[in-house]
Amino acid sequence: MKRLVVKIGSSTLTTEEGRIDHEYLAALAKQVDEVRAQGWQVVIVSSGAIACGLERLGMSGTRPDDMPTLQAAASVGQGLFASAYGDAFAAYGMTTSVVLLTRRDTADRTAYLHARDTLDRLLELGVVPIVNENDTVSVEQIRFGDNDTLGALVACLIGADLAIILSDVEGLFDANPTQVADAKLIERVESIDQSIISVAGDAGSPVGSGGMVTKVKAARVLGVAGIPLVVCSGRRENAVVDAAAGKQVGTLFSAAHAAHEITPRKLWIALGDSARGSIVVDDGARRALEQRGGSLLVVGVAAVEGDFAEGDIVDIKDQAGYLFARGRVSASRDEAELALGRTREELSHNRLLAEMADKPLVHRDDLVIFE
To answer: Which of 79, 114, 138, 175 is most buried when burial is the number of CB atoms within 10 A of its CB?
Structure first.
């Protein structure tokens, strides 16, 4: 059977008053039932616990900005969130479960693999898992996280054949449609370069926390894994059914790679942990990484940013600031900074830095290239 991940944002799932839209959930359940009948196993990645909690606490309408209130609302709303999905899907004979994840759960590889095994087993049992961030305890996820990244992670975890993001916008436009009257929808994106990233907007909804830029970043990682992504309006009739059938819906980010070519280890590097810093490389180093499949040597590094330690995940950028890779470093920021500007020969004659003359700063086995 084919596997489908459907991500739904808070702004799509709620009404203008910030309440859970039960009619929308019922319509979604009908679509999921239909695609399951067509041979798809479905995982839902959904926000909504905070919105449910705020509604029950009489605070819907304006989202609070203090962390204790958000976490308290998530705690109150989690059971209501689970019941809302359970009731809507039970009407079509489907059993749902709730899987709560945090970034901490994916930063550890063992926990990452356990999460994968759990989702696999739930799908084998015919369950529709509803995956949500554990907003009650995950401070970072509430403040900086987004379910677009979580949706991409889940798609990679289960080896999905397709991912769909149901948003409050129709897709990716060539300009901000709220500001440019003749902005045009980009129906298909073959590769994600700086021009695509530059047209992605910021978060604009008072309910949701992810903007189009997070969707583009999710698409970039999914492309590496060979998983196409459709971003479309969640309020479009039969959006899930049509996207699963291959019809033109919103924006399709195609996947150039063979499906799931990337190893689980590299998927974990790409999505499972937040970057602790950045490495800026020169043009020669970027060519070596992208075209020759090489490792990153310290002699190709132009600058370092952040405060990373040996074994941390870092972003890798070119000198124009474009993020094109991510990897695990074999040295700390202090060591890398001391080696900057030195030739291989100079490093080999320095007793403190000699090891870095030949040792990759990022080995190709610990490197993910976003193409």
So the answer is: 138
